[in-house]
Amino acid sequence: MKKTIFLSLLLWGCSTPEFGVPTTELKSRYPRVSTTENGGLLMSWFEKIDSVNWALQWSEFDKGNWSEGQTITKGKPYFVNWADFPSIYEVGEDNLVAHWLQKSGKGPYDYNVQISRSNDRGKSWSESVIPHGDIDPKGEHGFLSFFHQKDESLGFVWLDGRHMGAYDPVTHSMGDMALMRSTMMVNGEMGAETMLDSRVCECCPTSSIHTENSLIIAYRDRSEKEIRNINIIRYADGEWFDPYPVHEDNWLIGGCPVNGPMLAANGTDLAIAWYTSPNESPTVNVAFSHNEGASFELPIRVDLSKPIGRVDLIWISETEVMVSWIETAEETTDIVTAIVSTTGEVQSPRIVTEIQPGRVSGYPQMERVNDQLFFAWTEGGESGSVKTKWVALSAFR
Fold it and tell me: 160 vs 32, 106, 113, 171, 379, CA distance in Å?
């Protein structure tokens, strides 16, 4: 592995002016970006209606322009959270799906996943449905990620806390968070729920992706000894394989670090990025798989020694990925990126932008359109809002 010396190249002046940016209002929050089949982008975000209420907005980037923001849902008792936030996803053709979290009880973490579908590319949206059957007792449900399935149905996984409130008198402990999976048919009909792992980390985002022959799900596990490695569950050849750790990080931590993994696929090649901190040594790693997730190579460290995590990951060539994360410096907190090759070479990390410290920035987003990269994050404070930026890929070389 070769890791080059960090060059403090700040990409403030490298914005691409000919590409427009989506219009977001003051106090908007927590963007989520996904790609479309025609090479465009979808972005969802929360927007403030008044002092109490929110609306979930969306916009599409196509042929160089962003559409005017439109509303998916508004005025409900949403669970608005910096780490567990809504998404919009293209199922196929003009079929879109969106998810958000909605309060279900008086407890601080009583909320359900809600999923709504559009068959006319977002002009109208269906009544939302709850994919998990356990509406009572109340509990936490979230950190959902979508993926395509071979039969053209929509698959998704989420963290499910239906058993967390149950007290075990033998072990004198509460119940565990589980990883669940379900599907939605083309006609909107919901499939059956399946438990994939009965004990996982309570509040780390999931990532899931479908390659030509496999479904790969990444999440943070939680062992009985409180070791919280990143695990892979794989479905291939009609069979679910047992979970296995991408790497034995052996991070012993008594609480959830709120830092999930990110997968990206390029044909049968996969990449994964994640944050870990064994022995109080914070690290951002990237690892590659050349067999559709059956196994991963040894991790490649990419951070600058003080990462906070909150990673994103995309392929930028047949042999390279770009990983982004948040890192602290002496006087700033920054979104940082690095290009990593499948041979293990890490190019000099680049600072995309300075951001405010703390949770308000959420999980910064990164996607690619041809030779341009799109970044989105949240700027905090009274005058804060969703911020976005285009940067040419060549600026990172």
Answer: 21, 18, 10, 21, 30
Task: Measure the N-to-C terminal CA separation of the chain; round to a whole number of Å.
Answer: 19
How far is Cα 354 from Cα 219, in angstroms, rounded to an integer? 28
What confidence tens digit (pLDDT) does each residue in 188-243 have?
899 999 999 999 999 999 999 999 999 999 999 999 999 999 999 999 999 999 99
Burial class, 5, CB count within 10 angstroms (exposed 0-12 / middle 13-18 / buried 19+): exposed
Contacts of 228 (CB under 8 A, 6+ apart): 201, 220, 221, 222, 251, 252, 253, 256, 257
| Domains in the chain, CATH or no CATH each | 2-396 (2.120.10.10)
* 99, 87 contact by CB (below 8 A): yes
Find out whether 228 and 221 touch, Cβ atoms under 8 Å: yes
Question: In degrees rounded to 5, what are phi and psi of residue 341?
Answer: -95, 160
Rounded CA separation 139/164 (Å): 8
Secondary structure of 76-115 in HEC code, one letter for each residue: CCECCCCCCCCEEEEEECCEEEEEEEEECCCCCCCEEEEE
User: Which distant-in-sequence residues (6+ apart) come within 8 Å of 145 by Cβ?
Assistant: 87, 156, 157, 158, 205, 206, 207, 208
Q: If DSSP codes are grouped into helix, strand and coil, which group holds residue 11?
A: helix
Tokens of 126: 């269906």
What is the C-alpha separation between 1 and 8, in angstroms, rounded? 21
Torsion from C-alpha of 364, 368, 373, 375, nearest 10 degrees? -20
Q: Mark residue 72 as left, alpha or beta (left: phi above 0; alpha: psi -120 to 50; beta: remaining).
A: alpha
pLDDT at 166: 61
Phi first, then psi, for residue 13 (nearest 5°) are -90, 10
* b/e code 334-361 from CB counts within 10 Å (16+ = b): bbbbbbbbbeeebbebbbbbebeeeebb
Enter the pTM of the model: 0.94
Would the CA dihedral through 32, 36, 41, 44 be positive or negative?
negative
